[in-house]
Design goal:
Blueprint (H helix, E strand, L loop, with lengths): L1 E6 L11 H14 L3 E6 L14 E4 L7 H15 L5 E5 L3 H9 L6 E5 L24 H25 L4 E4 L2 H9 L9 E2 L6 H8 L5 H5 L6 E6 L8 H9 L7 E6 L5 H10 L6 E5 L3 H10 L2 E3 L11 H8 L4 E4 L3 H6 L3 E4 L4 H13 L1 H14 L7 H17 L20
Parallel strand pairs: 1-2, 1-4, 2-3, 4-5, 5-6, 6-7, 8-9, 8-11, 9-10, 11-12, 12-13
Helix pairs in contact: 2-3, 3-4, 8-13
Protein name: Glycosyl transferase family 1 domain-containing protein
GO molecular function, one term: glycosyltransferase activity
InterPro entries: Glyco_trans_1
Length: 422
């Protein structure tokens, strides 16, 4: 097959993160299966390419930041390239333009991948010192609220119906798929669950680790290392993490490393001072890919107390599993779905329960070993194993190409999530 991936941007390996890592892996693996893969970047001005990509790259240059012009340009991009491919794979954020393409007679089937909620819902709100940042009553704030209501109505009853014209959608977890289905996205009634596709085998080889590496080093650190790294921005849970850690009774047994930087870094650092945690918390700053993974090799526990809304997932959590790291995540969330039995869960937004889980896992080396073993068991399951899900994608794409009206000729029941009928 000739597959065209339409995505926002591409980055080199050392600066790539999140969905860029996932998509790069998808494309490379689909090429290994005999496909001709081309990547089309929509916002190519944001590309950061210090080395050649392993696939063909086409750089389109959409510069408008506004919703409708972006999706109109996506429509034009699909029309421009339809004679060069058999199927399009698009980021879920481009479904409105892709739906218009199919509605107006676009020749090629469209496979969309969901990693974010509906666009009108995709807004993270800072939780740090939220009491200090309450908005004052004003006409401007009222007008902003009215605009959001209008935008919600347009997205829910017009644009989502347009997006439903795409042929098929995949998603990173069933909670996110259900949110899209309830918002009106009809193809989300039955989606392919593919987790966060991650180069597990390649990463383990490059890092020099095996499934036994973590279990063989448990208990060798002088203090139990708690680790988390990400952009210090709204919705990333640094406040909850610090509030929970402040309640840990035996903090002298732990060392908390917070990697990354971002717009809320000053607030995070100030919170550490206010809670009197300076001697227990380290800030290594922004980390390269190599540095991030090196910390993974040293850590004992990976903390991820919040990542946006309850239905989102984080690729750093999959990376932690690849390194065999036991994790602590909020229960009933997309994060908890991703890790399965390889984590301890706590009541969402409950700092006291988070503290109890940190204490329990820090004190029990055997439990950490068992959760590490469970990491690799989870990574072998068909809805998250990167090797299995890419094969499933390949089969499904062939089905769409052979039967673009949506009558899939292959049986992939082992990979589909439950139908979102509730």
């Amino acid at each position: 097959m000739k597959i065209y991936f339409v995505t926002s941007k591409m980055k080199s390996a050392n600066t790539a993160a999140g969905s860029v890592i996932e998509l790069t892996y998808m494309m490379k693996e689909l090429m290994k299966l005999g496909n001709d893969v081309t990547c089309v970047t929509v916002f190519s001005g944001f590309n950061d390419l210090k080395e050649p990509m392993p696939f063909k790259l086409v750089e389109e240059r959409v510069i408008s930041p506004h919703l409708l012009p972006i999706h109109w340009n996506v429509f034009k991009i699909l029309k421009k390239h339809e004679n060069n491919c058999d199927i399009f794979h698009i980021d879920g954020q481009f479904m409105y333009g892709a739906g218009l393409y199919r509605l107006l007679g676009g020749k090629r089937p469209v496979f969309a991948h969901l990693i974010r909620p509906p666009l009108v819902m995709d807004e993270y709100v800072s939780q740090i010192f939220q009491g200090q940042a309450r908005k004052k009553f004003s006409f401007t704030n009222i007008l902003t609220g009215v605009k959001k209501k209008i935008r919600w109505f347009i997205d829910r009853f017009i644009l989502t119906r347009l997006a439903s014209c795409v042929d098929f959608v995949s998603g990173i977890n069933p909670l996110l798929n259900r949110v899209h289905y309830k918002f009106g996205l009809k193809p989300a009634a039955r989606t392919l669950l593919i987790g966060d596709t991650y180069p597990m085998v390649e990463t383990m080889k490059n890092a020099g680790i095996t499934e036994w590496s973590y279990r063989n080093r448990v208990g060798k650190n002088e203090r139990v290392i708690l680790y988390y790294s990400g952009r210090m921005a709204a919705g990333k849970g640094y406040d909850l993490m610090l509030a929970g850690f402040a309640k840990v009774k035996n903090k002298e047994k732990f060392r908390l490393i917070l990697g990354g930087s971002g717009p809320e870094e000053d607030k995070v650092r100030q919170m550490v001072k206010d809670l009197g945690l300076e001697k227990h918390v380290e800030f290594p700053g922004w980390l390269s890919r190599e540095q991030f993974l090196e910390y993974m090799k040293q850590a004992d526990i990976y903390l991820l107390p919040r990542w946006g809304a309850y239905f989102t997932s984080a690729i750093s959590l999959v990376e932690a599993m690849v390194f065999g790291l036991p994790t602590i995540v909020p229960s009933g969330t997309g994060l908890a779905w991703s890790v399965g039995k390889s984590a301890l869960t706590f009541e969402p937004e409950n700092a006291d329960d988070l503290a109890r889980k940190i204490e329990r896992l820090g004190e029990d080396a055997q439990l950490r070993k068992e959760l590490s073993r469970q990491c690799y068991e989870r990574l072998k399951e068909p809805d998250i194993d990167p090797r299995q899900v890419i094969i499933a994608m390949n089969v499904l794409m062939k089905s769409l190409v052979a039967s673009p009206a949506g009558r899939h000729i292959f049986n992939l029941n082992g990979y589909f999530g439950k139908e979102n009928k509730d």
